[in-house]
């Protein structure tokens, strides 16, 4: 009984081995040659490939070998070599070629390779993208893909992409030029922005001159141009903000001279009108400081806004200082009295001082008359 059981176990194991699917090692791809070998392709460009597929050694059970391409009008030719002896070439014009495992199964000791050539043209694309030149994989008897496909791709260019990119860059470049001219007319320093403009213009010209095979280089040049244009606009914005700050500093510098004059005269140093001028001037200076901080932080719009406020406040301070100066020039005597009143002290009001001065004048007149009469009498006696 034990012997019968052992025989049955051996038979079952043998059957299981027979029922297990045959496992084959993967094919390998060698000597891949692609022409053109580098660069992007435009639709219609002729492309050719040649390569060898090596059948795994020591295996007599093969999977189907599948070859696929996205090239337009593909022309395939493959030869199966067994121990260096080639079979007749097989031709195909399909996108996909299926080489049956039946054609590839030889003795495990045989050296089997498949030599393949492929030619076609780059396909049309709606947008620039990588397309498959060749894809190679295995399929088992159930049509399932075995292992990861071997793939070679190429960038196929939609020439409209480059044309559109160049057109867009030229539009941006023209806008930068218009902005430079506008700011230059206002007396703003545009030299830094002009340097970026020149760089962008050069990059665009280079992109326009490049062949389609240099698609990537052309796009890189356009990207560099676009970056230069953006930098140019930023530098122009900065120069504009700095110019506004400089303009705002003008009224402050002017009023500083008048303030120094008023403060150097005792008759005006403590005048309330001067205090108003100084307060307005300090507000303008605080706006200038804020504007400079915004420039440092790259917020040029806010810098211009603060510079405008500084100019308005500084101009107000300067105008009030001029009005103060004009009032002094129109009535210098009242200013003198004001100065006297300040030196005497705050006990007397300006009205009391005026009355006192009037009394002094009357006394002087009376004394003068008396002296005049005495001299006249001396002359008569003389």
What does this structure look like?
With 382 residues, this protein is an alpha+beta fold. It has two domains: 134 residues, Immunoglobulin-like (Sandwich), CATH 2.60.40; 179 residues, no CATH class. The chain contains nine helices and ten strands. Strands 1, 2, 4, 5, 6 and 8 form a six-stranded antiparallel β-sheet that branches. Helix 5 runs parallel beside helix 7 and helix 6 packs antiparallel against helix 7. It is rod-shaped, with a radius of gyration of 49 Å. Keywords: Membrane, Transmembrane, Transmembrane helix.
Outline the secondary-structure elements.
Elements: H1 2-19, E1 28-35, E2 46-54, E3 64-68, E4 72-82, E5 85-86, E6 90-92, E7 96-99, H2 101-104, E8 112-121, E9 129-139, E10 145-156, H3 159-185, H4 191-209, H5 215-263, H6 272-296, H7 300-330, H8 332-344, H9 350-381
Antiparallel strand pairs: 1-2, 2-8, 3-7, 3-9, 4-5, 4-6, 4-8, 9-10
Helix pairs in contact: 3-4, 3-5, 4-5, 5-6, 5-7, 6-7
Quick take:
With 382 residues, the protein is an alpha+beta fold. Helices cover 57% and strands 20% of the residues. The strands form 2 sheets. Strands 1, 2, 4, 5, 6 and 8 form a 6-stranded antiparallel beta sheet that branches. The chain has a 4-stranded antiparallel beta sheet with strand order 7-3-9-10.
The major pleated sheet works out as:
6 strands, antiparallel
Order of helices and strands: HEEEEEEEHEEEHHHHHHH
Q: What share of the residues lie within helices?
A: 55-70%
Structural class assignment? alpha+beta
> Please, what is the average pLDDT?
86
Low-confidence stretches: 11-24, 336-350
* Number of β-strand runs: 10
Q: In angstroms, what is the radius of gyration?
A: 49 Å
Strand content: 15-25%
Total number of distinct structural domains: 2
Describe the global form: rod-shaped
N-to-C span: 190 Å
Instruction: Figure out the total of helices.
Output: 9
Keywords: Membrane, Transmembrane, Transmembrane helix
Transmembrane segments: 352-372
């Amino acid at each position: 009984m034990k012997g019968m059981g052992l025989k049955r176990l051996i038979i079952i194991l043998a059957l299981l081995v027979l029922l297990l699917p045959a496992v084959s090692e993967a094919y390998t791809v060698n000597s891949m040659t692609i022409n053109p070998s580098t660069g992007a392709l435009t639709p219609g460009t002729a492309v050719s490939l040649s390569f060898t597929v090596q059948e795994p050694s020591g295996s007599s059970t093969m999977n189907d070998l599948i070859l696929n391409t996205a090239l337009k009008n593909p022309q395939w030719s493959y030869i199966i070599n067994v121990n260096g002896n080639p079979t007749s070439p097989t031709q195909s014009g399909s996108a996909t070629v299926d080489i049956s495992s039946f054609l590839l199964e030889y003795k495990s000791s045989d050296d089997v390779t498949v030599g393949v050539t492929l030619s076609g043209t780059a396909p049309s694309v709606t947008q620039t993208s990588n397309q498959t030149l060749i894809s190679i994989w295995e399929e088992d008897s159930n049509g399932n893909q075995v292992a990861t496909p071997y793939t070679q791709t190429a960038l196929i260019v939609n020439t409209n992409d480059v044309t559109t990119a160049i057109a867009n860059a030229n539009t941006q470049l023209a806008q930068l030029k218009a902005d430079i001219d506008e700011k230059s007319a206002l007396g703003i320093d545009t030299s830094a922005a002009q340097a970026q403009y020149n760089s962008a213009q050069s990059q665009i010209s280079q992109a326009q001159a490049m062949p389609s095979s240099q698609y990537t280089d052309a796009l890189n040049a356009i990207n560099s141009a676009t970056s230069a244009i953006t930098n140019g606009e930023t530098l122009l914005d900065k120069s504009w903000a700095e110019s506004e700050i400089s303009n705002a500093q003008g009224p402050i510098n002017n009023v500083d001279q008048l303030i120094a004059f008023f403060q150097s005269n005792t008759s005006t140093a403590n005048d309330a009108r001067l205090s108003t001028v100084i307060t307005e001037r300090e507000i303008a200076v605080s706006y200038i400081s804020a504007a400079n901080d915004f420039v440092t932080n790259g917020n040029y719009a806010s810098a211009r806004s603060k510079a405008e406020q500084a100019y308005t406040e500084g101009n107000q301070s300067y105008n009030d200082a001029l009005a103060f100066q004009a009032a002094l020039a129109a009535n210098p005597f009242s200013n003198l009295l004001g100065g006297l009143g300040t030196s005497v002290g705050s006990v007397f009001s300006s009205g009391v001082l005026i009355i006192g001065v009037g009394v002094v004048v009357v006394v002087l007149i009376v004394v003068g008359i008396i002296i005049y009469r005495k001299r006249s009498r001396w002359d008569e006696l003389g």
